[in-house]
Design a protein that fits this description.
By secondary structure, this protein is an all-beta fold. The protein has no helices and five strands. A hairpin with a 6-residue loop joins strand 2 and strand 3.
Amino acid sequence: MGTKNIDRRKTVFGVVTSNKMFKTITVKSEKRVKHPKYGKFVRRVTTYKAHDEENKVSIGDKVEITETRPLSKTKRWRLVRIVK
């Protein structure tokens, strides 16, 4: 009946651009999309605010974040692990 959606949560890899907030990091994720008319690949950047419980991430770290319930007005992601 009630299946858990834990496995269906989105995960995103990105680079930390800010860690000035308390237990919050800003992660920049970049993807390449093809322009519909001209066919050139264009870079699109999305920024996410993610929850970092232990404040252990520094600027420039590559991290993996995943979707979670709303933690604040703009925070809907949480830190899974530090990749590099």
